[in-house]
Amino acid sequence: MRGNIAKRHVILSGCSGGGKSTLLAELKRRGYETVEEPGRRIVAQEMHGQGRALPWVDLELFASRAIEMASFDRARVEDANGWVFFDRGLVDAAVALEHAAGVPVAKTLTGLDRFHHQVFLTPPWPEIYRSDGERQLNLVEGIAEYHRLFDAFEGLRYDPVILPKVDVEARADYLLERLS
Fold first, then answer.
1. Could you tell me the CATH number of the domain that includes residue 168?
2. pTM for this one?
3. Higher pLDDT, 25 or 128
């Protein structure tokens, strides 16, 4: 992948239930290229299949599938013009694989192009958190995941930007201002 293209690929990460998907939908509404979270797509597929790669059944298999899907997603938007926003993706999947199987994040990502240096993280936000059939992580587990992700992004020398707890339009404005 060409380096300046990679610098236009922006990760939205953070706490489960923190508003990433809502923010992604707002960015898409504004005309930006977006890539939906691999994990949600895998869970939807597995709920209609054998269910072996569900994160609460086999986190290692789930994370491996998420890495494959996120790699394909990234290649698919390689030639996109302008900003491309990823709801989770490669780094999040690598962090999950490290948590499940001890495979170091840096090893999983070796040889892969970096994303934009700023990573936008949704903080834990108990007031909007909801579990559902596809998100069975409770808030305490979500907060632990958030801290693993934050530490991993810092360790990989990204610049984590904590998104404010404001309505989605203001959150999108904040993110876009930080990128300009």
1. 3.40.50.300
2. 0.90
3. 25
